[in-house]
Each structure stands twice: as C-alpha cells, then as structure tokens.
Amino acid sequence: MIEPLGLVPDSERRGLIGALPAATRPYASLMRLDRPIGAWLLFWPGAWAVALAGIDRHGIALILWLGLGAFAMRSAGCVYNDIVDRDLDRQVERTRLRPLASGRVSLAGAVVLLVGLSLVGLVVLLQLRPLAQFVALASLILVAIYPFMKRITWWPQLWLGLVFTWSAPVGWAEATGSLSAPGLLLYAGSVAWAMGYDTIYALQDREDDALVGVKSSALALGDRARIGVAALYALAVLLWAGAVAMVRPDALALAALLPVALHLAWQVATLTPDDIGDALAKFRANRFAGLLMFLGCLVVGSTA
Q1: CA-based R_g, the chain, Å
Q2: Which DSSP state fits 90?
C-alpha cells in the first residue's frame, strides 16, 4: 500500500533512510537512524571516562563496545520514548509524523524492535566486569522513568542528564575497577553539560510544549534561557576541572579543558533563543564539544 505523502517525513525519502527498503524506513526513523547526534551524546561521557583513566589495549576495545552500546541503547531509548509519548507526539507539530504517532508503525512492531535493540545492549553488558555491569543495570530505573518527567517537573532536562551521561560511571568503573571521586565528578559535570544542551534543544518546542502542557527547563527559564545554559556549562567545566585535578594534580593539566570550555562559551555567546534553526545547530555542535573533551581527557589520562 502506498502511504500518503503527508504522513511520510522528508527524511524517509532521502539520505540514509531513503536508501533502505520501503518497509524498513519507518523502523529506521523510530530508531532516529538519520540523527546520530543522540548516539554521539550518549557515547562521549563513557569515552571521556576511559580516556581520563588512561587508555591501554583494554581501553580501546572498551571504547568500541561503549560505542556499540550507545548506538543500541539510544535507539532503544527513542523507541521506548515514542511508545510512551505517542499520544503527545500527535499534538506537537515537530513530532506528529513520528512512526508511532502517525500510525506507520504498530505498537507491537515497536515493542519487537525495542526487545531486539535491548538484546544488543545485553551483548555489550556481558563484556563488562561485574561492578560495571551493576552500574549499567542501575540506569534502567532512570531510563524507565525519564519519558514521564516532562509531565511532572519543569526540569526534565536534569533527568535526561542523569540518563544520557550514565556511560561515564560505567566506563570509569570498568576502566578502574571502582567508583572513585574523579569518575563521579566527571559524571556530575557531564550531567550539567547535558542539562545545558538539552535546554537549548527544548527551545525549539516552547510554543508546542506550552500548548499541550509539557514542561521543560526552556519554559521554566523563559527569557533567562541563555543565562541558564551559561550557568550549567560553567558548572560542567568546573566539575570536570575537579576530576582532572584529582587525576593529575598539575595546574597545566587544566589547560586540556580550555578548548571545550571555549567551545561551550561560543555556543552561549552566539545562541539566539528565538531562532529554532540556531537552537538545533547549537545543540548539534555538542558532538564537537564531546570530541574536544575526549581529546582533553586523553592528554590528561596519558600523562597522569
């Protein structure tokens, strides 16, 4: 059956998803296969932790496994989120064409996909030591609750930060065999970073969110959104600096954070909160921020 063009987003007619067989395209959209930014943001904190701990042969393999896990679990998270939000998504212009909201994927089909992706995550989990396995499994509680937080609190971005940067304690626990202070500070800074970039992302939906009763930090901050993001980014850098100082107690080591700090400052200085396109561009720029932070952690970890 040919689907009405009005129910099929442009992303399924071109690019990576457009090149797939027609029957698989809605499922690829459900996984956000055309938007890898989410997987990158999920991956980077774990890679930072491994790099800061000092990369050896095991560390390289661990980063690769964390990459696979980030892709699988981000995709699974998108499917789960869309299952929970399918009724809300129909009411929001930006999300009304999502596969579940538009009816192009059945609830049963989405559940099967979710199970399959979770099995990939299980394969990654089995590569880890018991402590890291325990830490990774503990995140499932946060993940299960996250989609409901936008109905409860004005700060669902805090919950997203807790979930989306959980690979930091997982990576640290696996690389060091412990949950010591540097890893926890790295995680805390990563949570603040995620709150900042997700507040920027939420700027796109302020009008629709207000209409359907969905809460967000972007709505809570209002005209002070730029100040709020600046404060969160500053807190992130401060906490990261604490982690770096504990790994390598040398003032020069803090210079490794200068590139990512400058990049985050650029995001804030040039952010136009009322420009949806700019908000999306600044959000996506955090993929590069993640790379800069990784390079900084790599320098510190290799010289500690």
Answers
A1: 19
A2: T
> Cα–Cα distance between 135 and 125 in angstroms, integer?
10
Closest-CA residue to 121 (of 231, 42, 221) = 42
In a domain, 10, yes or no: no
Residue 16 lies in a domain: no
On whether residue 2 sits in a domain, the answer given is no
Taking alpha carbons only, the member of 255, 298, 230 closest to residue 51 is 298
Question: Does residue 271 sit in helix, strand or coil?
Answer: coil
Digit-by-digit pLDDT tens for the chain (304 residues) are: 334 444 666 566 667 788 888 888 889 998 988 888 999 999 999 999 999 999 887 889 999 999 999 999 999 989 998 998 888 778 777 778 888 888 889 999 999 999 999 999 999 999 999 999 999 999 988 888 887 887 888 888 999 999 999 999 999 999 999 999 999 999 999 999 999 999 999 998 787 777 677 788 888 888 899 999 999 999 999 999 999 999 999 888 999 999 999 999 999 999 999 899 999 999 999 999 999 999 999 999 988 6
CB-side neighbour CA atoms (13 Å) of 235: 17
Domain at 57, CATH number = 1.10.357.140
Q: Is the pTM of this model over 0.85?
A: yes
Q: What is the domain count for the chain?
A: 1
Q: Which residue has the tokens 């980063």?
A: 63
To 10 degrees, the CA torsion angle through 219, 220, 222, 225? -100
Residue 97 domain-assigned (yes or no): yes
Which domain range does residue 214 map to?
21-303
Residue 45's Cβ-count burial label (10 Å; 0-12, 13-18, 19+) is buried
